[in-house]
Amino acid sequence: MLGEVRLRDLTWRPIGRRAPVLAGLDLTVAPGERVLLVGPSGAGKSTILHAVAGALGTTIAGDLSGTAEVDGRLGLLLQNPADAVVAERIGRDVAFGPENAAMPPDEIWTRVDACLEAVGLTYGRDHFTAALSGGEQQRLALAGVLAMHPDVLLLDEPTSMLDASTASSVREAVLSARDDRTMVVVEHRIEPWLPHVDRVVVLGPGGVVVSDGTVGSFLAGPRPAGVWMPDMPAPLPVDVPTDLVRPAVEALTVTATDVSVELVMRTLRGTQRSRALTGLTASLVPGATTGFTGPSGAGKSTALAVLGGLLKPAGGSVSPELRRRRSAALASLVGWVPQNPEHGFLTSTVLAEVGHTARRVGREVDAPAVLDLFGLGRFAASNPYRLSGGEQRRLALAAALAHRPGIVLLDEPTVGQDPGTWAAVAGWVGSSRDAGATVGLSTHDADLALDIEHRMREGAIA
Ligand SMILES: Nc1ncnc2c1ncn2[C@@H]1O[C@H](COP(=O)(O)OP(=O)(O)OP(=O)(O)O)[C@@H](O)[C@H]1O
Ligand SMILES: [Mg+2]
Fold it and tell me: The CATH number of the domain where 62 resides is what?
């Protein structure tokens, strides 16, 4: 029947892994059913969505047996939204799918405008995709998926990079479009989805279905490991041994004074300027965690990037001017994790990745100990790009921080983590601070403890 999804005896072993990620999985989703798929980081959630989308054994290499069938048109929102951007302007980006499906132009542009509006991107069709924040990219990707009017909607952590209020409008967009549509949504922070789904499937480590039933039976059942249950207090951050986090170089104070940042995009058809930051005055100080919070697109990442010397201010000043340091000196001083960290892996194994910066700046690191703390020990020999979304983010943190920089700048460090891996990430942040590092981060994670909080809105501190 239209909208039905059937996985039968599905076994999947990616190349380079001894154990299968999915072993004999059976799962049927009825037409119109809304399923929440949950489980710890690395359990196999994204792999299941890839299986339904037919990517296993084709775009992703490995051994596949069993069957995966879908009746009807399928839309998949990938875990990493930046992977989905195809065009220079947001209108064209959303139009890409409908154009490929050879829809009439009127129909295409009606859908484009409706879907951009539904996800709350109100800049207009001609806005540059390169000028979008991480959360806006996530919403753009969703608009592109919705524009195809799929019968089966697969969403991999669609609100992971959004603040609570933007997330709720995105949920609205997903749910209001059509209520007879089949939907499978993966998310770590599950509470806001529970009122909107019919069924919760809990996956355990190794891709095993631990429980499968109604929301009521899920809530009444035993608490599964590695799942953020509603009302669950944040776990205690892990106490990371000081030797692993104590800055190896001086932890400096970094101050921005009345800084503005303009993003200038030049193309054949002209130049577009957008103001990303206005009048930012803020300091990052040793021994404190300074957080930039605020809605999607408020300028949090830009604030962090300008303080860290990655962006040149259009006005105002930043001191010290980290931007002027040579790259090796900067790497020794600053540990930086961007919002899409998975774009920056440099080596071919997880172990080599963690030791990479340390080797460059001539510093000793206990890479296996760092990996163990981040729950990545068993992946030492794996390729960084083969890790799950949450694993990749933890690897990026491990790789940026293992050499014990004095200044630690983290863009959304806890995205995509289950309670256990969250405690490791939050622990590393807190322990670095306690050991005297200057910590700056951008986040919408209300559970992450901040010493100083700058709430931002529209490119300025609110
Ligand atoms: N192409 C691949 N090659 C090798 N291993 C892979 C590949 N894709 C995924 N894996 C491994 O399979 C396991 C499941 O990955 P998957 O991405 O499905 O996890 P997930 O549940 O979505 O996790 P997260 O919550 O962190 O996104 C992980 O341990 C991951 O390292
Ligand atoms: Mg995933």
Answer: 3.40.50.300
What per-residue confidence (pLDDT) applies to 177?
66
Beta bridge partners of 155: 77, 185
Looking at the CA of residue 387, tell me the nearest atom of ligand 1.
31
Statement to judge: residues 160 and 248 lie in one domain: no
User: 40 and 77 in one domain?
Assistant: yes
- Whether residue 337 is found in the same domain as residue 454: yes
Q: Mind listing the pLDDT tens digit for each residue in 389-410?
A: 999 999 999 999 999 999 999 9
Residue 59 phi, psi (nearest 5): -75, -25
Name residues contacting ligand 1 (CB within 6 A).
14, 16-17, 21, 39, 41-47, 60, 79, 386-391, 416
Q: Which of 163-177, 209-223, 285-299 has the lowest mean pLDDT?
A: 163-177
Identify the residue whose C-alpha is closest to ligand 1 atom 17. Answer: 388
Tell me: do 24 and 143 sit in the same domain.
Answer: yes
Which of 17, 388, 395 to mutate for ligand 1's pocket (most ligand atoms within 8 Å of CB)? 388
Alpha carbon distance, N-terminus to C-terminus of the chain: 51
In this structure, the answer to whether residues 184 and 248 fall within a common structural domain is no
Report the SS3 class of residue 319: strand
294-342 pLDDT tens trace: 998 889 999 999 999 988 999 999 999 998 888 888 999 999 998 887 7
Q: What tokens were used for 431?
A: 């322990």
- Backbone region of residue 317 per phi and psi (left: phi > 0; alpha: psi in -120 to 50; beta: other values): beta
Do residue 180 and residue 305 come from a single domain? no
Predicted confidence at residue 351, as pLDDT, reads 97
Domain that holds residue 184: 5-220
Ligand 1 nearest atom to the CA of residue 188, by list position: 25
Cα of 391 from ligand 2 centre, angstroms: 9
**Within a domain: residue 153?**
yes
Nearest CA to ligand 1 atom 6: 386
How many domains, the chain? 2
Regarding whether 305 and 190 lie in a shared domain, the answer is no
Mutate to test the pocket of ligand 1, among 10, 47, 350 (most ligand atoms within 8 A of CB): 47
